[in-house]
TrEMBL record:
Keywords recorded for this protein, A-Z: Hydrolase, Metalloprotease, Protease
MF-aspect GO terms: metallopeptidase activity
UniProt name for this protein: Metalloprotease
InterPro entries attached to this UniProt entry: Peptidase_M4/M1_CTD_sf
Length: 943
């Protein structure tokens, strides 16, 4: 017996030694120079070929060099996400790696190189291929110029501190192929486990905080400088926080030292310690023991991956109880690090499994310790706020809403989509939330609260500090489940198929109820049917394999209502049709709510909100908009807005109905139908009515990150205007059939779009096209070009003057598409408002309209930041008159591009305008008062 025990110990020992032997080793000797934000590095890498393949070359991650130019994959990513700060940064604010040499003592390294398209990956060519189980040791010498922290929150800070991430060169992961990924600001560097030995020399005034073991080397320390040794086994990263005045605090929690600078005002150290102990105890019970001696969380990490609902609320509100906000921040960051430091999963192509575990643990933690916590905290108790459905939602409901938001926008992507192919909202929020909510859905379907926690715990323990993937989790979970769960991995994980069920029919029999359920999507996902007797929960039946429709029978036990997914565990995109009343015709009561709210599927909601507008004829108008638009967009929308004009003293208003239908993921992906109408004043004491039915077809590419969009709109614009006896119009009522095609591809650095517009009315037909191009060059010079060309196919509108003509500087807007402050004004301040449509000129010239054809070219370029020089040229052709050449030049002040701009004319066909009388009347401006239009400026960074 003793011999067997001795042999067992010996085998464990040799297994441990072999594990250590299999690790790569990275030894770094470095010197930090704060005055130049530079680190000099001498490094040795011992690379062990643990694969079964013979390697002819090695690949290294050099993500510090991803900051070297505006054209690296990182620079391009910033531009795609409309993040300006990197493109407009000063050269010294960016970073780079300057490699001096890469050599090996045995001369096995033939050469090394970078590729222009991926400068943050280094290929090392070997003279002699590296055989399986063989090692190679090679040395590198290089300098790292650290970037400013304003790009990713890591790098050098303005106060002289440093947060280091991706700061040294490391081997790429090899798994039958090299997994080499460029830095795209996704925080997904894929490093293998290595034993790290880092020696750093730096001024004595600094302190280093990290998860590595560290000590000061006395023999290499003076009053001015110090040398710190850091080391750690089986590590895939070495984040260092280097500060003069330390912002970090630490607690010893059993065998684990916790270090952090995430702080919360008015939280006593004792309460922080209790919270951290609770979080770490929870994670150890749910996952397993953390294998290292220290764990660190930082404010930088949290801000890069915050609790978004919590993060958006201003500190002054403080809607959550003392300690909860701090606790949930730490939970998010600790659990993320706990998983990422111990499970080696491909973070670019297989991130969903880590996300699912992470979010599921956060949901479970809140359920265990804060089951009554609401999504908006204590705000839910305030009179007025508590009337909103948002006040009823639990804290964990935010995860479903985050996913539902992109699903309703038709931007959802499968959980297996590579991280660099995800739209920004999916990368940061929606996909992780869908993954975590998916585990709750699966848990509800299995009807056993222990299966998912047990599978996570088993998966963690069996794959601790190993290369692993989601397939191994599936292999762990499947044997533990009594039900078939293929649908979860095939449909829920691998596709972006929407989940949407409804009752098609319900028939009462003598002792049973025959229920037919329709699955609106093409998937095999299950749904539960719950029977209620008034408010009493009577029965629950899971229905699977619903292809199109499926009919089941459930016992009729005096049921009064049937509900699909009563517990709301399924991330269904539409829960409004999940209710069937067995005792009454109306399935859901009506509910009136002020302002706007989160959708409550148990009611037919109608919202109302005061609305204020202004034009010079009606003055200020006040109305009440009745609508069904919720915080998250829904397919069918209506709004009815009766209003009153204080100046015109008339009843005004607008109304619209629209329905969006998604028919595919890309190509022709959406069709929108609708009708709109409004009535306002178009001149003093004169009203117009406009009614316009429409249908639009939207197109997009397969890559949802692409901003390329196409839209074809067909509409009929019907206008009815009151007549004025003293100034009658010859055509007060008219109808225009309009077909318009729009193409756009808008990015931070390049904008290209064009439109083709055809109009047909009783007395005219016209065709026009507009091209726009904007380019921001590497030297930050901006060029804007615009071309307009329009011609009448036939024109019999002479009795209407130029009302239907092409306009050189100020369209008459007979289709009532534009938001003019005073559309009929020819003098005064509001007449100086322009909308850059048709001719796009800024000066008022003698030839302001064209009844035959018009061609103009507009250009401007910046002189300094938001100050531009502009110039317009063109030809105006009217019937019976030879074409007239027109031009103007001036200064454009682009305070908010396309939304608030001022144009100062200098010269034109009118002469030297800047020296002419009443120059202030020649100044033109663009102004946008629509809140929705301004909001789009900020939301474009999210999607």
């Amino acid at each position: 017996m003793r011999n067997h025990r001795f042999l067992h110990i010996v085998l464990l020992y040799f297994a441990f030694i072999c594990t250590l032997y299999s690790q790569h080793q990275i030894t770094i000797s470095s010197t930090l120079y704060p005055e130049s934000n530079t680190i000099q590095i001498e490094q040795e890498i011992v690379y062990n070929n643990t694969s079964n393949d013979t390697l002819a070359s090695l690949y290294l991650n050099d993500w510090a060099n991803s900051f070297s130019s505006k054209t690296t994959p990182l620079g391009k990513r910033f531009s795609e996400d409309f993040l300006k700060r990197f493109h407009y940064a000063k050269e010294h604010e960016r970073g780079y790696t300057a490699i001096k040499f890469i050599t090996a003592d045995d001369s096995r390294i033939a050469s090394w190189k970078r590729y222009d398209s991926v400068p943050d990956i280094v290929q090392v060519q070997l003279r002699t291929p590296l055989l399986p189980s063989e090692k190679i040791a090679f040395r590198l010498q290089y300098d790292v110029k650290l970037p400013s922290d304003k790009f990713t929150r890591y790098g050098y800070h303005d106060n002289g501190d440093f947060s280091l991430k991706y700061w040294y060169i490391s081997p790429s992961v090899y798994t039958n192929k090299w997994n080499t990924y460029s830095n795209k600001n996704l925080n997904d560097l894929y490093n293998p486990l290595s034993d790290l030995h880092i020696k750093m020399r730096l001024p004595s005034s600094y302190k280093i905080h990290s998860e590595l073991q560290q000590y000061i080397i006395p023999d290499e320390t003076t009053e001015e400088t110090q040398t710190i040794q850091l080391s750690g086994k089986q590590r895939n990263k070495a984040n260092l926080y280097i500060e003069k005045d330390s912002s970090f605090y630490d607690y010893q929690i059993n065998d684990l030292k916790f270090i952090s600078n995430i702080d919360e005002k008015d939280i006593a150290p004792e309460l922080k310690s209790i919270a951290i102990h609770k979080i770490l105890t929870f994670l150890e019970a749910r996952l397993g023991k953390y294998p290292f001696e220290k764990i660190i969380t930082s404010q930088k990490e949290y801000k890069n991956s915050p609790v978004y609902g919590l993060n958006q609320l201003p500190d002054i509100l403080r809607p959550f109880p003392d300690g909860f906000q701090y606790e949930i921040k730490q939970l998010k960051t600790i659990s993320k690090n706990y998983i990422e430091n111990t499970l080696l999963i491909d973070p670019r192509y297989d991130a969903w499994i880590k996300d699912a575990i992470h979010v599921y643990l956060m949901i479970a933690y809140t359920e265990q310790y804060y089951p009554e916590m609401k999504m908006i905290g204590n705000l839910s108790k305030i009179i007025g706020v508590r009337w909103f459905h948002a006040a009823d939602l639990d804290f964990n409901d935010q995860y479903f809403l985050g996913y539902k938001n992109v699903a309703r926008l038709f931007l959802d992507q499968s959980l297996t989509t590579p991280q660099d192919k995800l739209v920004k909202f999916n990368k940061n929020i929606a996909n992780a939330y869908k993954a975590g909510v998916g585990f709750k859905y699966l848990e509800d379907y299995l009807e056993d609260d222990n299966v998912i926690p047990l599978s996570i715990q088993k998966y963690y323990s069996e794959n601790l500090l190993k290369l692993t993937d989601s397939k191994k989790f599936e292999a762990t979970l499947s044997p533990l489940t009594p039900k078939n769960i293929e649908w979860f991995f095939e449909d829920y994980i691998n596709t972006n198929s929407k989940i949407d069920f409804k009752f098609k029919s319900v028939k009462k029999r003598k002792d049973s109820i025959e229920v037919t359920i329709k699955n609106k999507s093409y998937n095999a996902m299950p749904v539960s049917v719950v029977g209620l007797r008034k408010k009493e929960y009577v029965s629950k039946t899971w229905v699977t394999d619903i292809t199109g429709t499926k009919t089941i029978k459930i016992p009729n036990e005096g049921l009064t209502k049937l509900v699909l997914d009563y517990d709301q565990k399924i991330p269904e995109t539409n829960r409004r049709d999940n209710y069937r009343n067995l005792k009454w015709i109306q399935n859901k009561p009506f509910q009136f709510r002020f302002f706007q709210d989160i959708e409550d599927p148990t009611y037919n909601q109608i919202f109302f909100i005061p609305e204020f507008e202004f034009n010079v004829y009606d003055g200020f108008t006040i109305g009440s908009k009745f609508h069904n638009k919720t915080v998250i967009r829904r397919p069918f929308n209506y709004n009815i807005t009766p209003s009153y004009g204080f100046k015109s003293q008339k009843l005004l208003g607008s109304a619209s109905l629209s329905y969006r239908r998604q028919i595919a993921d890309y190509g022709l992906y959406q069709i929108r139908y609708g009708i709109s109408g409004n009535t306002y004043s178009y001149a003093p004491d004169l009203l117009y009515q406009r009614v316009s039915p429409f249908i639009s077809f939207s197109f997009r590419p397969e890559d949802l990150r692409s901003n390329q969009r196409q839209r074809l709109t067909v509409r009929s614009v019907n206008v009815f205007r009151e007549r004025a006896e003293e100034n009658p119009v010859n055509t007060p009522d008219y109808s225009v059939f309009n077909t318009r095609y729009l193409y756009s591809d808008n990015n931070l650095l390049n904008i290209f779009n064009y439109s083709i517009d055809y109009q047909l009315a009783k007395n005219f037909s016209k065709l026009s096209t507009t091209f726009k191009y904007r380019k921001i060059f590497l030297n930050n010079r901006q060029l804007n070009l615009r071309l307009f060309a329009g011609t009448f196919i036939f024109n019999d509108t002479s009795r209407d003057g130029d009302f239907f003509s092409f306009a050189l500087d100020r369209p008459t807007d007979y289709l009532f598409d534009y938001s003019y402050l005073g559309r009929s004004e020819s003098t005064g301040l509001v007449s100086q408002q322009i909308i850059l449509a048709e001719g796009g000129f800024k000066s008022k010239l003698d030839y302001s309209f064209s009844n035959q054809w018009l061609t103009t070219f507009n250009a401007d370029s910046n002189i300094w930041k938001w100050i531009f020089a502009y110039g317009d040229v063109g030809f105006v052709k009217n019937k019976g008159v030879s074409p007239k050449f027109v031009f103007d030049t001036g200064i454009r002040l682009s305070l908010v591009a396309d939304y608030f701009e001022v144009f100062l004319p200098i010269a034109s066909n009118n002469g030297w305008e800047i020296a002419q009388p009443n120059y202030n009347e020649k100044i033109r401006f663009i102004i946008t008062l629509s809140p929705q239009t301004l909001i789009s400026l900020f939301t474009r960074e999210w999607y």
